[in-house]
Amino acid sequence: MTSFETLRWRSRTWAWQALLGALLIALGVLAIFYPFASSFTLGVYLAWALIASGVFGILTALRTMRMRGHGLDAILGVLSVAAGFVVLVHPFAGALAALWAIGVWLALSGAAKLFTGRQVRRERAALFATGVLDLLLAMLFFLGFAAGDLFLVATLAGVSLMVGGIATIAFAWRLHDVARHLAHRPAHA
């Protein structure tokens, strides 16, 4: 697959990206306003958001295998799916399982974004910024968790989900612009 075909394929996914971003923002708001709601429902929503994010990351990595820096997308996708299944299997233990899954995911996501940012020029600043933010949130997250501050942990998880959702929606709008631009070009160009 040429890079043009890959770009055309990815640009068609903008609506799904925007929907995922909206879901992440909604989950972030719920986590902030209902910090003690480690209920079955929150665990299930979080699980499916992680699974959907992971599956999309894996599919994207498979479609763009020859492009530099996308191997980590597959690894992060697998980790997101695994974290999602951990939370899905133990929804009532969601307070512990989901919080630890989020903390680990934040740390791994931050590290992956920093590593990928070193390899990809076009998105370097955004990847570095969100990577550093994820690592800082993971550090605060684990410090708050160790101190038993569930409100701090829930707030940090909510902020991380909302920032991730906003970044995902911004990316979706960029893909939408690319899709509009590509609609005027022939498929073989």
Characterization of this structure:
The chain is an all-alpha fold and 189 residues long. It has one domain (3-182). It has 7 helices and no strands. The longest helix has 33 residues, at 150-182.
List the defining traits of the structure above:
189 residues; mainly alpha; 7 helices; 81% helix; 0% strand; globular
Proportion of residues in extended strands: under 5%
- Unreliably modeled segments: none
Work out the oligomeric state of the chains in this entry. single chain
What is the SS-derived class? mainly alpha
Round the mean pLDDT to the nearest integer and report it: 78
N-end to C-end Cα span: 13 Å
Which radius of gyration do the C-alpha atoms yield?
17 Å
Helix content: over 70%
Tell me the number of structural domains: 1
SSE run: HHHHHHH
Shape: globular
Most strands sheet: none
Per DSSP E runs of 2 or more residues, the count of β-strands stands at 0
Number of helices: 7
Give a concise summary:
The chain has helices at residues 3-11, 14-33, 40-63, 71-89, 94-119, 124-146, 150-182.
List the helices and strands and how they pair.
Elements lengths: L2 H9 L2 H20 L6 H24 L7 H19 L4 H26 L4 H23 L3 H33 L7
Helix pairs in contact: 1-7, 2-3, 2-7, 3-4, 4-5, 5-6, 5-7, 6-7
